[in-house]
Amino acid sequence: MMKIPDMVAKVLLTAVVALPAVAFANPATLNHPGRTLAANCFQCHGTDGYGMESLAGESAAEIVEEMLEMKWDTANKDIMNVHAQAYTDEEVALIADYFSKQ
Amino acid sequence: MNRRDFLRYLSMGAAAGLTLPLEQVLAAAAVPGNTGANGRVVVVGGGMAGAAVAKYLRLWGGTGVKVTLVEPNAIYYSNIFSNKVLTGDTTLAKLAYNYTALKKNYGIEVKTTSVTAIDPTSKQVKLADGGTLPYEHLVLAPGITFDALSVSGTIGNKAKIVHAWQAGPQTVSLQAQVKAMTNKDTFILTIPPKPYRCPPGPYERACVVADYLTRVKKGGKVIVLDANNGILAEPNNFGKAFTSIHKNITYVPNAILNSIDADTGTVNTAVGSFKGKVINAIPAQRAASIITQSGLGLANDTTGKWAGVDLLSYESTAVAKIHVIGDSHASGQPKAGHIANAEAKVCADAIVRAMRGESPNPNPRTNSACYTPITKTTASWLSVAFKYDPALKTMVPAGAGVVESATINKDNYEEMNKWFSNLMSDTFA
User: How far is B381 from chain A (nearest CA, A)?
Assistant: First the structure.
């Protein structure tokens, strides 16, 4: 028979694995000009950046730096390079600002 | 397999999606108050496009946007990853999603029924359960329907010819047929002319079935009969997979399907006849009947099979206030779940803006990403980001264009699992 702490651990593990991302209404980004751009990141990074490859709450400067690095590294054909190369520097800044405010 | 067997099969796993008390606690926080957008939206179809548009209408539009989702099935089985059901790597029950989170987290009303008629003058839809629903905006996300195949044979043999291109009972049937194969048998896959749902999907299926036959059955062949003149998606990766990874695959282009004799297992095509033990025929496709049979002229693209839309809002070019998203609309974007989610967000944003008296975003962006298993442990990917071309009034590839992964490897396989998990949460939770 399973010991109670094991049962708790099992339930918790199940809960963590099964817990879907639930979005929150965030007044800071409700009508943010980068919202529909950033929404293109949600599929792989979670709604509003809350996911397994989380972006929510990252500093804007850091996101911009990483995105521009991938944007200009055209020799590298990794999946994020493909996406970084699709946006202007201004759009990258808006996307970064959006996630930094989550 | 009959319906009862199918239900029994499903009950072996947890068929329902995720319902956690914690969600209820969080629910009130998900939808903002009144954002200035007020009105009723009816969404028809609860697949990747329909579920996402319902969620984002509430998440971005707030409490003034009343959303009703009409979907005849209580459970959505993900087409993405359903090829892995064929090889026993996953089960249909693990690909089951319901609408509980959309109801609880976002206050979306869900009606488990179908739409029988649309009246664009009085702006209401009629439901199969006898009810009617008024709308200010109607979003149609009904997916695809299949053209009939020319199949001869006994009723029992004809029933074995399945497409399994909509995850559900046919997936289970095909899995049983693959499982019953021996190392002497041949699996025949027919690919329809483009456009069809999920461009890399059939090639992926050929790979994972070939891999399964080699690993588990220690033999067996796959013949791919492609109506198109070459591999449509990831030509480098699948070309490599067909020639050097899965040497038991024979790829035949220009094999336009004429007929199938289910009794003898013969597939007749424009380039000859082929025999196999299992015949997996994916028919040509068009928008679901609510688009093609509505009597409203919604299927108004050049082929008459798909809905023409204004890509700034996905509003039909035939009927005002009716939007069409996902596989049933006509554009240069692929018909696939990941990009359907992106189209849904553009549509939701445009409807919310319209309700506030604003114009749609003049620069909508969408993206497509698809990871595809090549073996049980390795995968490739295909991706493209789209931008709006105002001169052509269409979505065109931005930046690097359509790119496939440079390699097929285990890292991609791990990324694939994360991608799937996030994509499904972004759509259904």
Answer: 8
For the record, the structure tokens of B9 come out as 């099969």
Which domains does chain B carry?
Answer: 3-145+286-362 (3.50.50.60), 150-283 (3.50.50.60)
Question: The complex's ipTM?
Answer: 0.91
Q: Is A17 on the interface with B (CB under 8 A)?
A: no
List pLDDT tens digits, range B173-225. 999 999 999 999 999 999 999 999 999 999 999 999 999 999 999 999 999 99
Which residues are within 8 A (CB) of B192 and not within 5 positions of it... i.e. 6 or more apart?
A: B147, B227, B257, B282, B283, B284, B285
Contact across the interface for B367 and A43, Cβ inside 8 Å:
yes
Which tokens belong to B220? 């067996």
Nearest-CB residue to B429 (from A21, A36, A79): A21
Interface contact A42-B361, CB threshold 8 A: no
- Does the CB of B103 have a partner CB in chain A at under 8 Å? no
Instruction: Provide the edge-to-edge strand list for the sheet that holds B307-310.
Output: B109-111, B65-70, B39-44, B137-140, B322-324, B315-316, B307-310, B329-330
Per CB-CB distance under 8 Å, the chain A contacts of B22 are: 15, 19
